[in-house]
Design brief:
about 180 residues, mainly alpha, two-stranded antiparallel ribbon, 5 helices, about 75% helix, globular
Length: about 180
């Protein structure tokens, strides 16, 4: 009879570690996105370090569990700190889309600067500029062109910061997790 490669206790420990890491990333998502965020004029865009736990969730857990972490963070953040805004499930769709992008682009791959840049570029185009612009114009009855212009400007500048910061923190995590 063949011996299993991993004993049952080790599998259990790995599952607990993953659960704890997912919970930590959800908590960081809520803290960074709801409490430590800076809003652009008019409240069109939010700049925060939220992308770090979000991209780490995709990097560590893949597209589906990473997407679930982002959805849980969005829902919990909306319930805890809504800043007087109505909660919309449309932005939860954006969170799921971003989790899927991060997971497909980063999971089980070396986080090179080029890969990280293109991951954040795709997420910015599809989610931040695409979906979020559509949701904001529909829900708040804003001018589509004005929202789009501000989103493109903000996200193009923020893309560099995202790439640098995630590249810096992902290397030690890749070696230890």
């Amino acid at each position: 009879m063949l011996k299993p490669l991993i004993r049952k206790g080790e599998v259990f420990t790995r599952k607990i570690n993953n659960l704890l890491m997912a919970a930590l990333l959800i908590a960081l998502d809520v803290i960074f996105s709801r409490l430590l965020a800076v809003y652009t004029p008019g409240g069109i865009d939010r700049l925060s370090l939220q992308f770090l736990p979000n991209a780490l969730a995709g990097y560590l857990f893949g597209p589906f569990l990473g997407g679930a972490v982002l959805v849980a963070g969005d829902m919990l953040g909306s319930l805890v700190v809504s800043r007087g805004l109505a909660v919309s499930s449309l932005f939860t769709v954006s969170a799921l889309a971003k989790g899927l992008i991060y997971g497909f682009m980063l999971n089980n791959k070396k986080p090179t600067v080029k890969r990280v840049f293109f991951t954040f570029l795709i997420a910015a185009i599809v989610v931040d500029v695409g979906l979020d612009t559509a949701w904001l114009t529909m829900l708040r009855h804003l001018d589509w062109g004005a929202v789009l212009a501000q989103k493109i400007l903000t996200r193009s500048v923020f893309l560099i910061a995202q790439t640098v910061l995630f590249s810096l923190i992902s290397k030690p995590i890749a070696n230890s997790y």
